[in-house]
């Protein structure tokens, strides 16, 4: 059932100052390092002054554990991996994290940060992390917390149904284009049924624990804590939320339950990471904060995401004067020789524009290209091949752009790790709500260059245009 967005402000007011005081005490009493495994780079869309590591070498994880911050991110890009690949990656990360934690005498917990519209390798990834954690630490994980709430992206969970905001309407996520994803699609509206569907009945909807908005807005910490204390056997917990303060209330009870020995796994969107980590609010970034090396060169925008929202955002961007638009013909992807020529044509044109001081936007054919074999893995491999071509539009550049914007989750991961060769980035903050900016490391292809990671499913139609205007 669709809802009017007015419902978001219809709930009983919460004393946020009181809740924040309680939460601060709980965070200070907890000494576990929060290790966030992010299945694409958009997961840092709520934080600032936090490190992102693009590999899981022991040295990187040691640096993450040594930081004063109580959390750090490891970018897995697993939404662009096959099941076999993500299995290997998660086993490697779990082993490396545990090794470092033992050597440094620290405890840790995992957050599997994924898409706010419920796509990705679930339940595979958290099941892998659970098994590894239990084997490595000897502790049992009692439950898995599902919290897809993400205010900046218009994602809210009400009465156990997850919604996506379109204008003044809240649409159940299962009715959106995201749920029709060729690789990670689903049918259930109710989160309890989503769990049963995704786990193929291994976890029943009837056994899911739901944290209600009523209890949250009544600030019934004891009841919520009791619910968490009762969870056993890796059963799932769904968190309803319409605002950040709801997550803060939940996290007070969560930290109290963990202090009593309960252990949880997390499969969440970006919002709860910010709250659990005690990351403060910060104004949107200015051009001066992002561009530390002035240049006469133009910037580059690469667009891989083919969602309807992205397509409309690109059309709106065309209203800006002085931007050169280049279309990469992705329909050539099945012909290796022709596709290679097409990529090089785009790169040559990009370089000429950037050198002349013009910003360039290179985007893939807006039609969705499919393998048409009926095999989900084939679809994933094809999308990866296209994404690899998109990242090479940055990776092959012989001239340093003034800024880089990548549109789309898998695209932005490939641009960050492959094209820009970033090993460690600092999250400066957000250029627009839900749209993070990395400052690339000294080791990268273009050091200290602002890299804007623009999710395919975030923002209004004008948001891409507005973000570019900030940087010009």
TrEMBL record:
Similarity comment: family membership: Belongs to the four-carbon acid sugar kinase family.
Pfam short name (any one): NBD_C
Keyword line: ATP-binding, Carbohydrate metabolism, Kinase, Nucleotide-binding, Transferase
Domain Four-carbon acid sugar kinase nucleotide binding per the UniProt entry, residue ranges: 301-464
Keyword Transferase: yes
Keyword Transferase (UniProt): yes
Residue intervals of the Four-carbon acid sugar kinase N-terminal domain: 34-275
Organism: Bariatricus massiliensis
Protein name, as recorded: Hydroxyacid dehydrogenase
Stretches of the chain forming a coiled coil according to its record: none
Superkingdom as given in the UniProt entry: Bacteria
């Amino acid at each position: 059932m669709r809802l009017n967005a007015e419902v978001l402000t219809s709930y009983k007011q919460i004393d946020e100052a009181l809740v924040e005081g309680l939460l601060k005490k709980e965070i200070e009493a907890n000494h576990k390092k929060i290790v966030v495994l992010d299945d694409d780079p958009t997961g840092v869309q709520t934080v600032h002054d936090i490190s992102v590591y693009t590999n899981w070498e022991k040295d990187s994880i040691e640096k993450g554990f040594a930081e004063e911050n109580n959390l750090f991110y490891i970018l897995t890009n697993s939404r662009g991996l096959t099941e076999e690949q993500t299995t290997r990656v998660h086993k490697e990360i779990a082993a490396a994290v545990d090794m470092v934690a033992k050597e440094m005498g620290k405890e840790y917990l995992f957050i599997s940060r994924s898409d706010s519209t419920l796509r990705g390798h679930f339940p595979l990834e958290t099941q892998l992390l659970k098994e590894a954690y239990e084997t490595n630490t000897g502790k049992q994980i009692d439950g898995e917390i599902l919290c897809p709430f993400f205010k900046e992206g218009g994602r809210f969970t009400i009465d156990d149904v997850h919604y996506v905001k379109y204008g003044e309407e809240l649409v159940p996520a299962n009715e959106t284009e995201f749920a029709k994803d060729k690789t990670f699609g689903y049918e259930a509206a109710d989160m309890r049924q989503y769990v049963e569907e995704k786990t193929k009945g291994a976890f029943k909807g009837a056994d899911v624990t739901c944290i209600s908005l009523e209890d949250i807005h009544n600030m019934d910490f004891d009841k919520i804590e009791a619910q968490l204390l009762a969870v056993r056997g890796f059963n799932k917990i769904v968190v309803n939320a319409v605002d950040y303060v709801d997550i803060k209330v939940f996290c007070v009870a969560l930290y109290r339950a963990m202090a009593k020995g309960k252990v949880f796994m997390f499969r969440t969107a970006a919002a709860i990471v910010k709250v659990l980590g005690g990351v403060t609010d910060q104004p949107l970034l200015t051009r001066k904060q992002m561009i530390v090396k002035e240049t006469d060169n133009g910037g580059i925008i690469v667009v891989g995401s083919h969602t309807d929202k992205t397509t409309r955002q690109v059309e709106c961007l065309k209203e800006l004067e002085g931007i050169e638009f280049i279309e990469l013909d992705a329909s050539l992807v099945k012909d290796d020789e022709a596709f290679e020529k097409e990529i090089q044509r785009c790169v040559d044109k990009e370089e000429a524009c950037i050198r002349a001081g013009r910003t360039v936007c290179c985007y893939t054919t807006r039609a969705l290209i499919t393998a048409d074999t009926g095999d989900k893995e084939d679809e994933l491999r094809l999308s990866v091949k296209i994404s690899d071509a998109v990242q090479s539009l940055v990776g092959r550049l012989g001239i340093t752009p003034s800024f880089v914007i990548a549109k789309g989750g898998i695209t932005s991961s490939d641009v960050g790790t492959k094209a820009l060769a970033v090993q460690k980035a600092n999250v400066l903050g957000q250029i627009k709500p839900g749209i993070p900016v990395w400052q690339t490391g000294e080791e990268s292809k273009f050091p200290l260059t602002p890299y804007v990671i623009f999710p395919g499913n975030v923002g209004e139609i004008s948001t891409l245009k507005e973000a570019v205007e900030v940087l010009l």
